[in-house]
Amino acid sequence: MGKFSQSLVEKVAALIEEDNYTITEICRIVSISRKVFYEWKVTQPSFAEALQQAEEAREEKLRQRARQSMRQKLEGHRQVETKTTYVASKDSDDPYSLVVKEYVVKEKYCVPETSAIVYSLSGGYNESKGRKQAQAPSPLVITVDSEKTKRDLERLQRNLSEKKGSC
């Protein structure tokens, strides 16, 4: 069973921040029981503080990844796919020796997603309420290269204007 130490606290905090393990798995990795983990959380202020900071850092990283993902959906992005095909080498006596037969790189452009644009323009998701909430949309300028996306945005803007006018 692990003994309380600053190095153990740092290891547990790092594992929580990584966000790859459950509490049970973390306890197994650092050789403590779940019971000890939760006792320390209550009785050791430095442990509780380190856990809180690790959770906050983990959540901030998650929010950052979500913003980056939404930005890609709003702006569009390039996606690169590579495929390598191997065959057995004819020049070698080793039947497990492989050589590259073909290396293919495909690049495609993923256009902006209209649903992501609508979501952003409508005010998005209100975390404090845990549900969608009507909010006044903030001014947003979107520049796109795709003609189809431009037409879709213009059609969306007309539809939104018509709905506002009919209320």
Features:
two-stranded antiparallel sheet; 167 residues; 17% strand; alpha+beta
Read across the widest sheet, the strand sequence of neighbours is 1-2
Q: Counting H and I runs of at least 4 residues, what is the number of helices?
A: 6
Residue share in β-strands:
15-25%
Largest sheet: 2 strands, antiparallel
Shape: flat
Fraction of residues in H or I helices: 40-55%
Question: Can you put this structure into words, describing what you see?
Answer:
This protein is an alpha+beta fold and 167 residues long. The chain has three domains: 6-72; 77-110, no CATH class; 112-166, no CATH class. The chain has helices at 6-18, 23-30, 34-43, 45-75, 114-121, 147-166, and strands at residues 77-88, 98-110, 125-126, 131-132. A two-stranded antiparallel ribbon has the order 1-2. The protein has a two-stranded antiparallel sheet with strand order 3-4.
Topology (elements, then pairings):
Layout: H1 6-18, H2 23-30, H3 34-43, H4 45-75, E1 77-88, E2 98-110, H5 114-121, E3 125-126, E4 131-132, H6 147-166
Antiparallel strand pairs: 1-2, 3-4
Helix pairs in contact: 1-2, 1-4, 3-4
